[in-house]
Amino acid sequence: MNMSGLLPNLKTRMKEDPIFGGYWGVVSKWNEASRYEFWDPVSAATLLQAINCEDHGVLPWLRTHW
């Protein structure tokens, strides 16, 4: 995140939106090896919510910086 120049914006967003901050915590734990792990339905749904939530999700936030 630091190389993209978005770290200051990320920190601001996390302070302003604690739900986003929680979602960021969920999403940032994912890595390439995670796709081969077993995900129980609750964990999988939580990750998808953290990524896609229209108001607080990580992907909608990233899209505002493309």
Structure description:
There is one protein chain. With 66 residues, the chain is mainly α. The protein has one domain. The chain contains 4 helices and no strands. It has helices at 7-16, 18-27, 41-52, 58-63. It is globular.
Features of this protein?
66 residues, mainly alpha, globular, 0% strand
Order of helices and strands: HHHH
Number of strands: 0
Give the helix level as a range of percent.
Answer: 55-70%
Helix-and-strand structural type: mainly alpha
Mean pLDDT: 95
Q: Compute the gyration radius: what is it? A: 12 Å
CA(first)-CA(last) distance? 14 Å
Biggest sheet features: none
Q: What's the shape?
A: globular
Q: Report low-confidence residues grouped into runs of 5 or more.
A: none
- How many separate helices? 4
The amount of beta strand, in percent, is under 5%
How many domains, in number, for the residues? 1
Task: Outline the secondary-structure elements.
Blueprint: H1 7-16, H2 18-27, H3 41-52, H4 58-63
Helix pairs in contact: 1-2, 2-3
Overview in brief:
By secondary structure, the chain is mainly α. The chain contains four helices and no strands.
